[in-house]
Amino acid sequence: MNFRKVLYVALWLLSGSAIYGQTAEKKTLTLDGAERVIAAAKAKAQELKAPGGVIAVVDAGGNLMALARLDGTFAAGANISIGKARTSVLFQKPTKVFEDIINKGRTAMAALPDSFFTPLQGGIPVVADGQIIGGVGVSGASSAAQDEELAIAGAEAANSFGSDAMAAQLPVSYFPKKDVDDGFAKGSVLFDGSGGRNYMVHASRREGPGMVEVHTKDTDILYVLKGTATVVTGGTMVDGKNIAADEIRDKDITDGETRKIVPVDAMIIPNGVPHWFKEVQAPFLYYVVKVR
User: Fold this and answer.
1) Mean pLDDT of 75-100
2) Got the DSSP string for 25-73?
3) 6-27: pLDDT as tens digits
4) Residue 112 Ramachandran class (φ > 0 left, ψ -120 to 50 alpha, else beta)
5) Strand, helix or coil at 234?
6) What is the value of pTM for the model shown?
7) Percentages (nearest 5) of helix, strand, coil residues in the chain
8) Three-class SS of residue 162?
9) Distance set, CA 21 to CA 3, 10, 14, 26 (Å)
């Protein structure tokens, strides 16, 4: 290669380096990330026994990505939570900062357009690797302070984004025999999904038949310990009614598949599939891992 060619290649490489130096890698919030933020805020709400709450997550441009409304929350909470999330990301500060500023007398800030400014406590930027990638807003909990507490819990879920090492550091959950026995004695939740995890573990007990159920988001993984049951899965619900968010119940099912399940049997019931414990030999004890 002659000198002129070497010079050309060197200049080309340098020009590429100069262009790269004028740009920066930008992280973005994915839908999975937004849902993990909501899951963490919902887990905190359950831990604090919050009476309600709407959780909204927006991307770095303030555009809504995901929203969850807890049962019993007033209707206006949705728009308020979106406004808080958008304000936190567009101004890159918790919304409490602006509420405090206005309360101290700078009321002119309240004249900013509602479309991008909601100066109410409860909005927190979502930060990953030092970059603001979105915002989370909460409205409708027991107080403005609790709104913010739930939002902070959601935002902190971003600490583990893209980090297998962080995931490996989640605490181990241990349930001694006494706690497990006590759980099965009455039927209870052993693990409630706290910490933003997408699963729960139930120590379930049935004394008799139940209603037809459909979980629109949760997949149930069953493992039988004691007793027998006749379970009908699939088919069509006759007159299903929503009894709670993502939960449908009915009294009957048509064209389902019937199985008798006994100890050591296992079953996976995907979300959206009707299932019915039609007959039960009590006590019927089984683990349920609910995965969302």
Assistant:
1) 93
2) ------HHHHHHHHHHHHHHHHHHT-S--EEEEEETTS-EEEEEE-TT-
3) 445 444 444 554 444 566 667 8
4) beta
5) coil
6) 0.51
7) 35, 35, 35
8) coil
9) 27, 16, 10, 14
> In the predicted model, what is the mean pLDDT of the chain?
87
- CB–CB of 147/96 below 8 Å? no
Q: Which pLDDT band holds residue 278 (cuts at 50, 70, 90)?
A: very high
Cα distance between residue 78 and residue 140, in whole Å? 9
CB 203 within 8 Å of CB 188: yes
Strand order of the sheet with strand 54-59?
A: 64-69, 54-59, 131-139, 123-128
- Decide if 63 contacts 137 (C-beta within 8 A): no
Which region holds residue 268: left if phi is over 0, alpha if psi is between -120 and 50, else beta? beta
What is the mean predicted confidence (pLDDT) over 222-251? 94
The whole-angstrom distance between residue 140's C-alpha and the CA centroid of its chain comes to 17
Q: CA 9, CA 126: separation in Å to the nearest integer?
A: 43
- Other C-beta atoms lying within 10 Å of the C-beta of residue 29: 25
The residue written with tokens 């050309």 in the block is 8
DSSP 8-state symbol, 131: E
Instruction: Kindly state the tokens that stand for 268.
Output: 């996976």
Please state the length of the chain. 292
CA distance 66 to 116: 17
Q: What is the mean pLDDT of residues 68-87?
A: 93
> Residue 134 is which amino acid?
G
Q: Which two tokens stand for residue 156?
A: 């902190």
The stretches of the chain forming alpha helices (DSSP H) are: 3-21, 31-48, 77-90, 96-103, 144-156, 164-168, 177-186
